[in-house]
Design a protein that fits this description.
Family: Belongs to the BexD/CtrA/VexA family.
Keywords: Cell outer membrane, Ion transport, Lipoprotein, Membrane, Palmitate, Polysaccharide transport, Porin, Signal, Sugar transport, Transmembrane, Transmembrane beta strand, Transport
Strand content: 25-35%
Protein name: Polysaccharide export protein
Structural class: alpha+beta
Helix content: 25-40%
GO molecular function, one term: porin activity
Largest sheet: 8 strands, mixed
GO cellular component, one term: cell outer membrane
Radius of gyration: 22 Å
CATH superfamily of the largest domain: Outer membrane lipoprotein wza domain like
């Protein structure tokens, strides 16, 4: 039992040293202006193959029939409720598949050749993690077809007073490897650097300026820091 405890202690000591090295070198890493998009399976990408998930917000429109237009959220059972046709399953279907299903249901009894459009307004199935020195750390959906770094931070209600705004780090899976890039938020806000796109599955960390608090943040992310290489 003593040997196990000593092994665990040594392991944590090693993690602490690695975390300190990462912390020390963070400011010397080149500031990135962009990152390649993630691997297709690293996060759910907003394209025609996206499958609707519970929690997604949908807009359903029937051409020239405004009374049937609805903005509905997919419930926890994966269903939505629409006028005339009632409750139907939406989760697990693409926009086109759900559109076809709704068209068939309306055309059976109520309408002749209805033209139905389904749009996903909030992709809950595509989520990003925003943590560190922000007001409300958490897991946030990608709203719309595109999310930028500034928008992701805004969803977390902005950075806190302890934030090191020049040390905003994004973790992402690229070419089968977990990689990292550091961004300078003031430079982005001034337009000196582009506001990079954030994808589902990304982890955004706003590091803290206080060394001890920053170290605590790094330690919380040790499993990621251990295996993710710097992207330059």
């Amino acid at each position: 039992m003593g040997n196990v405890q000593r092994s665990v202690t040594r392991a944590w000591s090693l993690l602490l040293v690695i975390s300190l090295l990462f912390l020390t070198s963070c400011s010397s890493r080149p500031v990135a202006s962009d990152m390649p998009p993630p691997d297709p399976l690293a996060g759910v990408v907003a394209d025609t193959d996206y499958l609707i998930s519970a929690g997604d917000l949908l807009t359903v429109q029937v051409f020239q029939i405004e009374e049937l237009e609805r903005q509905v959220r997919v419930d926890n059972s994966g269903r939505i409720t629409l006028p005339l046709i009632g409750t139907i399953k939406a989760a697990g279907l693409s926009e086109d598949q759900l559109q076809k299903q709704i068209t068939e249901l309306y055309s059976k009894t109520y309408l002749q050749d209805p033209q139905v459009t389904v749009l996903v307004d909030e992709f809950t199935g595509r989520r990003v993690t925003v943590s560190g020195a922000v007001t409300k750390p958490g897991l946030y959906p990608v709203v719309g077809s595109k999310l930028t770094l500034q928008q992701a931070i805004a969803q977390a209600e902005g950075v806190s007073q302890l934030a090191s705004r020049r040390n905003v780090v994004v973790f992402r899976q690229i070419d089968g490897e977990k990689k990292i890039a550091r961004f300078d938020l003031p430079a982005i806000e001034k337009g000196e650097m582009p506001d990079p796109e954030i994808y589902g599955g990304d982890i955004v960390v706003v590091y803290r300026s206080d060394a001890r608090l920053l170290l605590r943040t790094v330690l919380e992310l040790t499993p990621f820091v251990m295996v993710w290489r710097a992207y330059r």
